[in-house]
Amino acid sequence: NNNNSNNLTATQSPSRHCHLHLIVVIILACCTRWLYGLPDGRATCRSVPGLTKDQVELCYKASDVTAAALEGLDMAIRECQIQFQWHRWNCSSLSTKSRNPHASNLLKKGYRESAFAFAISAAGVAHSVARACSQGRLMSCGCDPTINRKTLNKNLRQSLDKEKKQFLQYLETNQILTPEEEKTYERSKIASRWKWGGCSHNMDFGVEYSKLFLDCREKAGDIQSKINLHNNHAGRMAVSNNMEFRCKCHGMSGSCQLKTCWKSAPDFHIVGKVLKHQFRKAILVDQSNLGNGEPIVVLKRSRNKKSNGGNSAGSSTDMAGADASATLTGSGSQSDLDAEQGARQPKADKNAARMARKLETSLFYYQRSPNFCERDLSADIQGTIGRKCNRNSTTSDSCASLCCGRGHSQVKERRAERCRCKFQWCCSVECDECHVEEWISVCN
């Protein structure tokens, strides 16, 4: 009996060790995830209501990338609030607990404010994912793969060797260079002074994931979906078209004998400014062909008195910019038109290409915006009651503009500020907390 019990214990011992080992591995994995801030896939996906089925599936497949995308949406909302803080619409409806601005009813409308919201959301996702790739936070991507590290190191060595040989040759000959020869030598040094290096932000991956994560929401095929897709694309273009060129110096005592350079996504505040400029110049889209064919972009009618007013094509162009000039030429014989066509063709092609590029980065909307003065919860419009305003201003932050003629009241505001800050060796800054009272203007 003792032998049987010993054998049974011996056979159960390895299985117990396996179970204990598995439990330890699970605990270590959880601790590692907690320590390094790695996102729990299903928890991340469940924390954001309002995602479509395709978005949830994509989130389960790439939870770490989706977490970076959600950070981009948060960044986009903050930047939106900065850009519109003194406007009647101040993006407050997009700041939801769900971290999903697309859950707002305002984005179901066709206002130019909705166009800005779609564009800056797509830009935020692309920007955040591209930056996370370069920081090594994601398993799906890394630095920009277009730069070959082995080739990079080889080029750096060749550049250093070339400069070293030129310098030694100059010392050996000990000749005095003429001013022109010295300029040529300096130009040759500067030309080979910087090389690709560092870790360029992977903007291609960021743009592609932004497409996968956001464009999958637009499947209806109607004018609203097409315009939302266009505004998403315009937002991503605002990021990729403004990539920055950054460098780091190398050499003795920071002499910058050689610079390592890489491409970086722009500061997102720059993207916000670009999209705010596009917001002001947003283009109205005709919805008379709702659900039929491509939407029609409504451009300003030409002032040419000879233009044919009976043809509606004179004031419109399609989304692809096929009729980029959006005007008709004056009346005349067919032979005259054929004779002039060859001379005008290169210029017309350039104008058409320029108009197509302009349309690609423009924001589209198809509904006139309300005044955003009164509260309308069905459209996620908060109104301007209780908003702070500037009674001495005449611009958009003025009480006359923000309060919509309802008047304003003076209210005493009390807030805490850091004051009497002192530097403590070493190395911290200690401040007192001061309470400041001031009178502010608030809309009635």
Automatic annotation (TrEMBL):
The protein's UniProt keywords, in alphabetical order, are: Developmental protein, Disulfide bond, Extracellular matrix, Lipoprotein, Membrane, Secreted, Transmembrane, Transmembrane helix, Wnt signaling pathway
Q: Where is this region: Disordered?
A: 301-352
Positions with biased composition (Low complexity): 307-316
Gene Ontology BP annotations: canonical Wnt signaling pathway; cell development; cell fate commitment; cell morphogenesis; developmental growth involved in morphogenesis; muscle organ development; neuron differentiation
Q: Which SMART domains match?
A: WNT1
Q: Which GO terms describe its molecular function?
A: cytokine activity; frizzled binding
Protein family (similarity comment): Belongs to the Wnt family.
- Which PANTHER family does the UniProt entry name for this protein? PROTEIN WNT, WNT RELATED
Function text:
Ligand for members of the frizzled family of seven transmembrane receptors.
Which protein, by its recorded name, is this?
A: Protein Wnt
Organism of derivation: Drosophila hydei
